[in-house]
Each structure stands twice: as structure tokens, then as C-alpha cells.
UniProtKB/TrEMBL annotation:
InterPro entries: Aldolase_TIM, GltB, Glu_synthdom
Family: Belongs to the glutamate synthase family.
GO molecular function: glutamate synthase activity
PANTHER family: ARCHAEAL-TYPE GLUTAMATE SYNTHASE [NADPH]
Organism of origin: Metallococcus carri
Pfam family, any one: Glu_synthase
Protein name from the UniProt record: FMN-binding glutamate synthase family protein
GO biological process, one term: glutamate biosynthetic process
Domain (Glutamate synthase): residue spans on this chain: 143-456
Amino acid sequence: MSKARWFGLVPAAFAAVATHDLFQKKHSLLRNYPVLGHGRYLLETIGPELRQYIVAGNDEERPFSRAQRSWIYASAKGENNYIGFGTDNDVEDAEGYLIIKHRTFAVVDQPTANHHSETVDLPSAKVLGGPRNRPKAFRPGSVVNISAMSFGSLSANAIAAINRGAKAAGALHNTGEGGLSEHHRQGGDLIWQIGTGYFGCRDERGRFDIERLKDVVASAPVRALEIKLSQGAKPGLGGVLPAAKVTAEIAAIRGVPEGQDVISPSRHTEFRDCDSLLDFVERLASETGLPVGVKSAVGHHDFWDELAAQMAKGDRGVDFLTIDGGEGGTGAAPLVFADGVALPFYVGFTRVYAAFARAGLTDQLTFVGSGKLGLPLSATAAFALGADMINVAREAMLAVGCLQTQKCHTDTCPTGVATQNSWLAHGLDPAVKAPRVTAYLQSLRRDLLKVSEAVGVLHPSLITPDDLELLFGERHGVPLREVYGYEPGWGQLSPGLQQEITTLMVPETGEATANRH
């Protein structure tokens, strides 16, 4: 085609668009500004990308700033994740700026080699299920583990990459409430999450089926069960997996009809109150021998007070609590729920921890923190406040290639992470991305150990609420113990557990591996 004809087609195309715009009634902007109005919609569409790459500063974006994403990307790729010249944070004027207080002298000797902590194990200070004598109690080999993300919300390749990466890092991988798929079976140890839909362990009518659960547990490396009461980004809401994402494979895994919206109810049907919840917990533990825990965001506090009071009786109890913050992630949620329902992690976690501390139960269960904790500073604060382990979700997604385009709910994730579109998902190669998950987990653990060394202890669980402060500009700082109303001893392990984890972390004892499983 000649250049002249090409030049003739361009005005004709603009004329056609203008005619369409003038006569359509759906968009008033286009009727008033034909052709030109499309520029506005284009800018709206690519707005996140423009802000991400051109407009925003290093610390402006949410949920993860450019600086935070850069640290995760560099860590996952095994690149230099250090910075030069000094912090660009507004330390002088920021309100509530978190600071870790190092010690000049320490009562323990730490290794100081540059890369020593990249190869050191970082096990949990507590045995999961040990206090309640579960037959399959174990000590998790990593204090950093993969949080709940379902197959269906994430692609098959993303799930496979994360599970392989978790295996190589010695970390646990939570299945999410969507059931246990083949893609979870890449060798990594699993925590099977049981949601309100009982996916993967339900009968034809959607009711919980203990025999199906036991069959799946027997067929996979499931190390613990987690009952999901609510999720930080959409607490008390339930969930919806759109029909477009419900493939034949997902339908078979979940036990639901193919090609129809899958609804997760907002409440469980197997229990109605705290008393029946604990009966359900003990039933699962008795039938499987596994540790059993609960995941929940924090709203009204009466549930937590009652749970602590019931467990204080000693006959029933959960083995772990996963506390999610309202700032946690999700594949899809109404704006009001993501922005305004459920307490942020630090507020919610400290209130729950206090309920169990007052009852004298903090050594009797493992506390797991969840909700944007996959960065060294926020993770350190969680450990100081009493978390024994942390779970990471969106950070693991970033490690396998997520760009924070925030299109998880549209099934159009450009990097194939949060989609069931086969074309988009094929761009994510699990063999290439799995080592990045491993490297990210190892880097986070390395930095946690380096911070512990700076504070003068051997393990992040030995960091206390007095070792961190919130600064209010250059006027004054307040220790975390005072900020959250912790009493003396809260947020700290008992002397026996402190000695146990200290012994495990000293290489000369040779006990770190022997006592873990």
C-alpha cells in the first residue's frame, strides 16, 4: 500500500471514531470531546504504570514503595540489595518512624562474616503442636514462610514456583483456602488452609467431609492445618472466585461446578461459637495428628478474650494463631473492606497477644504474623512484639515477577502470577522463578539475623519491645512496649524457651538440625 493511501486512511479513521463518539450516549466526555477524550481514558488505564516508573518517588507508592520492591527484586535475583549514600527517608520530621536500637556490647558472640547468615538456619523458637502433645508436632525450620494464596487466585505456574522455592529454602507453604492442587505438590512442606467453603474437603452438598480431608492429608506433605476465620483485606466477607477463573482443573480440586462463580461464605457452618470452634480444632487434631491453628484478622475483641479464657482451662486449644492485618493483600475485595475493615497488623496483633499474655498462655501456642511483614524492618517489629514466625504473600509474588500493577481481580496479570489465562501464565517459568523465591526468603532471614546480631541476640525471637522505638520527629521516641501497653515480660519468650533457641543457634552444639524435625 502506498504512503499516500496510508495518509488517507488516518483521517478516515479519526473521522469514524469522532462520528461514533458524537452519537454514543454512554460517555459524556467523548460526546463533548470526540477523539481527544480517549486520551483521558488511556491515561487512566496506564496511570499506575506512569506513577510507578515516572512520577512517584522511592517511598511514595503503596502498598509497596519503589524502594521496597527494589529490595525484594534484588534479593530474589541474588543481586546487590544494599543502598549507597544514606537513607532518603524523612527521619528528622516523620511521625511514628520505627528505629531498631543496637547494643554496643552483647552477652553472646555472633559470627561476623559477611555472608555467614545466608547459610545459617533460622528455625522457630517453638515446637508447633508441642505444648498440646500433637502426635505430628514439629519445629518449623524457618521463621519466614509463605502465606495463604490459593490456586485459582494465582496461576498454576506461580504456585509451582513458590512451592519449589519454599522447599529449597526449608520454608512452609500455605495452600490458601482453594484446596490442595497438584501444583502444591512440588516437594515443599504444606500448611493446608480450611476456609468457609471447605474446598478440597467437602461433600457434594458443600459440607465438611473429614474423610476427604484425611485422604488428601495422607497424599501430600501436609504438616499442619489452618482454619481461616477471616482475611485482613476482606474480613467477615467471604470471597468470590469469578466463573472465568473456574477451570475444569480448579473445579475438580475444589469440588465445585466448572464455569460458575465460586462463593466462599462469610462464616463457617461446622461451628457457631468459640466453644464449638475448639471442638472442631480438637476433632481435626485427633483425626489427623497434625497441629491445628486459626487465621483471623482482628475486629471486635470479645472473641479473643473468650478464646483465651477457654484455652486457660487446659483441655482444648489451638496450636497456633495467624494474625492478619487489615493492610494484608487479596486477589479481589470491595474497596471499603480493603481500606477500612479490620485493624492494622500491629494494633490487632498486640491486642490479641495481650489477651493471651494476661491468661499466661503465650508459651502454649505459636504466634504467626501476616500482613505486609516481608521486609526486614517490619518483620523485626513483629518479632519484638511477640510473633514467633511471619508469613509473606505479596512479597513472594513480587519475587516471582509481580509488578504491582494491581490487576489481580481482572484476570489480566501481565506477568502470569495472578491469572488463569493460559497465555499470560505461560510467561512464568517455575524452573526460573523458584530460585528467586528461595533467594528472597534467604535474604530476609539473613537480614533478620544481622539485625539480631546488632541488637546483641542470636535469634529474632529474642528481640524485645524495648529494642525498638517509634520516633516523633526529632522531639522524642517511645519504646514499643510503651506504645502498645505491654507489661514486663510480654513479647518475650520464657527463660526455658530462650535457652532452647539459643542452644539451637550455636553451631558448636550440632543440635540445630537434629532437633528440628
